[in-house]
Amino acid sequence: MQCSSCQHTDSRVLESRSTEGGQSVRRRRECLRCKHRFTTYERIEFVPITVIKRDGNRESFDRSKLLRGVVRACEKTGIPHGHLEALVDEVEAQLQQRCEQEVTSQELGELILRYLRCENEVAYVRFASVYRQFQGIKDFVETLDNLQNEVPPLAPPSSWHPSSPKAVEQDNSSSIVTRS
Ligand SMILES: [Zn+2]
């Protein structure tokens, strides 16, 4: 990606977020030579994603179906609907960026779980109960244990917490810091 100021071709990505319902990725970049900061929008070329279900059947990835499942799992958890939409967009964008065009329903579920963990533990456990097809109380206990031990959660889509301060938002313009 060429710097818009000095045309140097190496830059580092400061922040990525999916936009337009997951159809493009907005990246904030910094030129490695002149430190100029600029924003790029990369369109995702949509490839059809196939979901391989537990019983081996295949179906095409259906964003609205996934959203319905997530909404159901998150009923009465107080998570704003917009957060769930952003989550599904983020998951879809991730699937679009992988090399494989197939995903197992289990992988898909785990991906969502990693996001839900950051947001709400009740929703996490409920969603897990569906996706991991709980057989009984033992599975619940295991899931709760895993809350502590599992792979680190993925950072939630940045649109979830737009008010939180971002370290990367220091542009070249001088800023005035007021301390009380
Ligand atoms: Zn530059």
What's the helix count? 5
Looking at how many chains there are and whether they match, the oligomeric state comes to single chain
| Total number of domains | 2
Structural class based on helices, strands and sheet pairing: alpha+beta
**How are the strands ordered across the major sheet?**
1-2-3
End-to-end separation in angstroms reads 42 Å
Radius of gyration: 19 Å
Biggest beta sheet attributes: 3 strands, antiparallel
Low-confidence stretches: 164-178
Strand content: 15-25%
Number of strands: 6
SSE string, helices as H and strands as E: EEEEEHHEHHH
Mean pLDDT: 76
Q: What overall geometry do the principal axes of the alpha carbons give?
A: globular
Measured as a percent range, the helix fraction is 25-40%
Give the names of the bound compounds.
zinc ion
